[in-house]
């Protein structure tokens, strides 16, 4: 299920002001248990009582005045359209006995806009105010100078499946007020959620992100309970960060992700008391995750994964883990299913499989519930015996099945040699070439391949499409490799100077072209989503672009032979380098399964190809000899056979 489109919009400062402090008349009358439905539509008229769908009123303002005559609860059903005005429900205007007020779209997926200019979007105040519930609205104002979008002072407000944006304070609770935010988004405000003066805030399944101040700010004895939520990239200006908890306030945060707030912004800052359990706490560059000031305390409820030691968890006696940022694999905030955006982690993340299936966090069995996305996204998946910390549970990885049952070798003359289930779709062998072929790349469905020559010429066979080439164009350096995009509708060529040339749907993410290199670039590998790539030089140096992550390299380290090729793991979280002596160097989640390094070779190794599982690979030498490791199988080779030209590359089928 994708992220739900907000169904109602409170435009700049549309005020639903429930100013009913101390009004005893709002106590429920004896025997009152009915709910009155009011209807609003752009085709309506502000006359009558608005109590039938066939005779709706025209504005929410007028509908709320009719609540004065209702008994029990009141539900305002708002049809699709744009509405404007300021609605005030004052003590003198409510002689009735409403116990609850609900504002909702009708039908539930209707797109409703309520727009105003300067007033708060929704205010509920007074001990006797009706419990107010908002379902499927977007609350917004026209300027950040508006005090708050959703406010509860000494009253109760529930926000569900809603969005709160563009205000000085997105959600504000004060004077003992209580706000519950569920399956919602609080974004683009000055401060996301504020609670002061004994107020309480409960946040479940919600994303608080992109607020220029603090994500959650607690002051003067306020309290917050946060579960299964994402607090990400808040505090872009001034002070702030993820959570700011001061002056006698308390916060309990479980099963949530507090991550990568901008540089200089602390993830969790407290001079009071904070408890953390099964949380994923990721620091931004050169900024600590936690700061306890001079008197703050952080209690470890267990199973936290944190990227530095700033939270003060005991070195022993707790189940927390401190891990490098790169091992988490935290993705950017995006739609991953459920009502709100989340930040995904891969199944291979250091934050996965951390909490044992039966373990309790803050008194509840943690893995038995769902992650932030709710129903359909259980924390315990498949046959797993543990679940992830933070707001996102990755899907169970599919059992590794090596679908790679063959490979192609290519010669410098363009000749193709197919082994195993690899099919022959044609070649440049025996045809005139301006320059030698230097490598081969297979299409994603393995029903075709491209050959690339050192002048950038591309030759397509089978279902491989031709999307252009550098053949016949001026080059600063010879082309050394080609790699396909994930859908096979484009490819990148790379030159020995690190220059990148993108064709088809391949995008340019940067290159080493025109930059100083210690040694020439020799090969390229793309990330699984095609939004980045790595270049590797003959000294083993790695250069990462787009969403490609640097996991280490042999650059600057002693080598027995030059590096000649690179292959990425299926997850994109690692890669192998191979030297001309057959030595293998594994980085990230790439595993070492053996190599020809230190063993006798008839001719140098020239290329590497990985199996579909990432649990094995083949090396190929210039005489066509194949060396299989891990779950890679040997299906034959040109080793020891007559060749018209040396072998220069390999591609798995």
Write the layout of secondary structure elements.
Elements: E1 8-10, E2 16-19, E3 35-40, H1 60-66, E4 73-78, E5 81-84, E6 87-89, E7 100-105, E8 112-115, E9 122-125, E10 131-135, E11 137-140, E12 148-153, E13 156-160, E14 163-165, E15 169-174, E16 178-182, E17 185-187, E18 191-196, E19 200-204, E20 207-209, E21 216-219, E22 223-227, E23 230-232, E24 241-245, E25 250-254, E26 257-259, E27 266-270, E28 273-277, E29 280-282, E30 290-291, E31 297-300, E32 305-306, E33 321-322, E34 333-334, E35 342-343, E36 355-356, E37 360-361, E38 364-365, E39 386-387, E40 406-411, E41 416-420, E42 437-442, E43 448-453, E44 458-462, E45 479-484, E46 490-495, E47 500-504, E48 521-526, E49 532-537, E50 542-546, E51 563-568, E52 574-579, E53 584-588, E54 605-610, E55 616-621, E56 626-630, E57 647-652
Parallel strand pairs: 1-8, 1-11, 2-6, 2-9, 3-4, 4-7, 5-8, 7-10, 9-12, 10-13, 11-14, 12-15, 13-16, 14-17, 15-18, 16-19, 17-20, 18-21, 19-22, 20-23, 21-24, 22-25, 23-26, 24-27, 25-28, 26-29, 27-30, 28-31, 29-32, 32-33
Antiparallel strand pairs: 34-35, 36-39, 37-38, 40-41, 40-57, 42-43, 43-44, 45-46, 46-47, 48-49, 49-50, 51-52, 52-53, 54-55, 55-56
Describe this structure in words.
The protein folds into three domains: 1-167, no CATH class; 210-397, no CATH class; 406-652, Methylamine Dehydrogenase, Chain H, CATH 2.130.10. It is mostly beta strands. The protein contains one helix and 57 strands. Helix content is 1%, strand content 39%. Mean pLDDT is 85; it is low at 1-32, 86-97 and 116-120. The longest helix has 7 residues, at 60-66. A twelve-stranded parallel beta sheet has the order 5-8-1-11-14-17-20-23-26-29-32-33, with no helix packed on it.
């Amino acid at each position: 299920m994708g992220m739900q489109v907000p169904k109602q919009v409170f435009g700049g400062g549309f005020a639903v002001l429930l100013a009913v402090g101390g009004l005893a008349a709002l106590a429920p009358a004896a025997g009152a248990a009915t709910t009155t439905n009011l209807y609003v539509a752009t085709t309506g008229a502000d006359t009558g009582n608005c109590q039938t769908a066939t005779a709706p009123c025209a504005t929410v303002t007028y509908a709320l005045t009719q609540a004065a005559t209702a008994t029990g609860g009141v539900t305002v059903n708002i049809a699709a359209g744009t509405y404007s005005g300021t609605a005030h429900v004052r003590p003198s205007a409510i002689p009735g006995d409403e116990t609850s007020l609900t504002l909702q779209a009708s039908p539930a997926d209707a797109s409703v806009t309520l727009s105003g200019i300067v007033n708060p979007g929704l205010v509920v105040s007074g001990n006797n105010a009706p419990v107010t519930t908002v379902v499927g609205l977007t609350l917004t104002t026209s300027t950040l100078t508006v005090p708050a979008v959703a406010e509860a002072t000494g009253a109760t407000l529930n926000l569900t499946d809603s969005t709160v944006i563009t205000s000085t304070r997105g959600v504000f609770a004060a004077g003992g007020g209580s706000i519950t935010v569920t399956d919602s988004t609080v974004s683009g405000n000055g401060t996301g959620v504020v609670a002061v003066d004994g107020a309480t805030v409960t946040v479940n399944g919600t994303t608080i992100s992109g607020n220029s101040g603090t994500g959650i700010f607690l002051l003067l004895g306020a309290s917050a309970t946060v579960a299964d939520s994402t607090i990400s990239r808040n505090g872009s200006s001034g002070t702030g960060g993820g959570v700011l908890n001061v002056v006698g306030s308390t916060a309990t945060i479980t099963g949530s992700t507090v991550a990568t707030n901008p540089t200089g912004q602390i993830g969790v800052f407290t001079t009071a008391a904070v408890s953390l359990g099964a949380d994923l706490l990721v620091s931004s560059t050169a900024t600590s995750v936690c700061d306890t000031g001079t008197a703050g305390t952080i209690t470890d409820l267990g199973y936290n994964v944190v990227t530095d030691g700033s939270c003060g968890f005991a070195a022993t006696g707790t189940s927390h883990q401190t891990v490098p940022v790169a091992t988490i694999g935290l993705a950017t905030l995006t739609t991953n299913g459920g009502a709100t955006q989340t930040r995904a982690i891969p199944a291979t993340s250091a934050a996965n499989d951390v909490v044992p299936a039966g373990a309790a966090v803050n008194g509840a069995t943690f893995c038995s519930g769902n992650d932030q996305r709710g129903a359909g996204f259980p924390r315990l998946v498949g046959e797993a015996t543990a679940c992830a910390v933070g707001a996102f549970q990755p899907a169970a990885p599919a059992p590794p099945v090596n679908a790679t049952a063959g490979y192609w070798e290519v010669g410098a003359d363009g000749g193709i040699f197919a082994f195993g289930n690899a099919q022959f779709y044609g070649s440049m062998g025996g045809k005139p070439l301006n320059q030698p072929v230097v490598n081969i790349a297979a299409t994603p469905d393995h029903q075709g391949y491209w050959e690339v020559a050192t002048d950038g010429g591309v030759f397509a066979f089978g279902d491989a499409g031709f999307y252009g080439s550098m053949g016949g164009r001026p080059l600063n350096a010879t082309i050394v490799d080609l790699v396909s995009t994930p859908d096979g509708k484009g490819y990148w060529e790379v030159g020995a100077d690190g220059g990148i040339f993108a064709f088809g749907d391949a995008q340019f993410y940067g290159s080493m072209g025109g930059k100083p290199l210690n040694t020439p670039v020799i090969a390229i590998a793309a990330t699984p989503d095609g939004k980045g790539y790595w270049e590797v030089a003959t000294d083993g140096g790695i250069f990462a672009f787009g969403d490609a992550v640097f996991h280490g390299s042999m650059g600057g380290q002693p080598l027995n032979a030059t590096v000649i090729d690179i292959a990425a793991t299926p997850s994109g979280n690692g890669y192998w380098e191979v030297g001309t002596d057959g030595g293998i160097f594994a980085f990230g989640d790439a595993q070492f399964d053996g190599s020809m390094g230190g063993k006798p070779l008839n001719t140098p190794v020239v290329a590497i190809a990985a199996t579909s599982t990432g649990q094995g690979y083949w090396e190929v030498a210039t005489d066509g000899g194949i060396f299989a490791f891990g779950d890679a199988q040997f299906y034959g080779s040109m080793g020891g056979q007559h060749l018209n030209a040396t072998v220069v590359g390999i591609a798995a089928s």
